Amino acid sequence: MAYDFRNVRVLVVECSPAMTQLLRSVLHMLTIPPQNVFDAYTPEEAFAKFQHYKHDLVITDWLENPDMGIKLTEMIRKNKNSPNAYVPIIMTAGSAHYKRVVKARDAGISDYVVKPFSARLFASRITRVIEDRRPFVESEDFLGPDRRRKQDLEYDGEERREASNSTEDEA
């Protein structure tokens, strides 16, 4: 499906100028005007820009030092001054290590892309967070897209979430 991205505002948080330029090129290929793409290099700078410009999409690197991309994601999702805690967040990283992917997922990212990646793959991930947007889950310690990618409509086992919630209610 073709989209009109001319009015979409994107925040790119990346420490590598070459990667920032690659992401800008992909976004331009998707018809996002250069003036609608904002760069930031730290979580604090990114969050300040996010508050001011109210971006429609955030693309952040893992940002070693340590885990600054996770910090930004948590700021966007949990900070009471966040203008849109439900904004799609795509995280890029140089590692697909299971613990990193889980940590990013548990912070509330919408998608995770491992470097190096092609422009086509990245464009497909942007499309995926738009077309296949998972419902958001909000609890005391989590706000983000439902961590389950697939819903098994034929599952007939115990619903652990419902069981744990009812147990807590009875206590």
> CATH H level: which superfamily?
Response regulator
Uncertain segments are 163-171
Global shape? globular
| Domain module tally | 1
Give me the number of helical elements. Answer: 6
Q: What about the largest sheet? A: 5 strands, parallel
Rg calculated over all Cα atoms: 17 Å
Second rung of CATH, namely the architecture: 3-Layer(aba) Sandwich
Number of strands: 7
CATH class division: Alpha Beta
Short description:
The protein has a single domain, classed as Rossmann fold, CATH 3.40.50.2300. 40% of the residues lie in helices and 16% in strands.
List the helices and strands and how they pair.
Blueprint: E1 10-13, H1 17-29, E2 37-40, H2 43-53, E3 57-61, H3 68-78, E4 89-93, H4 98-107, E5 111-114, H5 119-131, E6 136-138, E7 143-145, H6 160-170
Parallel strand pairs: 1-2, 1-3, 3-4, 4-5
Antiparallel strand pairs: 6-7
Helix pairs in contact: 1-5, 2-3
Overview of this protein structure:
- There is one protein chain.
- This protein is α/β, with parallel strands linked by helices and 171 residues long.
- It has a single domain (10-170), classed as Rossmann fold (3-Layer(aba) Sandwich).
- Helices cover 40% and strands 16% of the residues.
- The chain is built from 6 helices and 7 strands, in the order βαβαβαβαβαββα.
- The chain has helices spanning 17-29, 43-53, 68-78, 98-107, 119-131, 160-170, and strands at 10-13, 37-40, 57-61, 89-93, 111-114, 136-138, 143-145.
- The strands form 2 sheets. The protein has a 5-stranded parallel sheet with strand order 2-1-3-4-5, with helices on both faces.
- Helix 3 links the parallel strand 3 (57-61) and strand 4.
- Helix 1 packs across helix 5.
- The N and C termini lie far apart (50 Å).
- The relative contact order is 0.13.
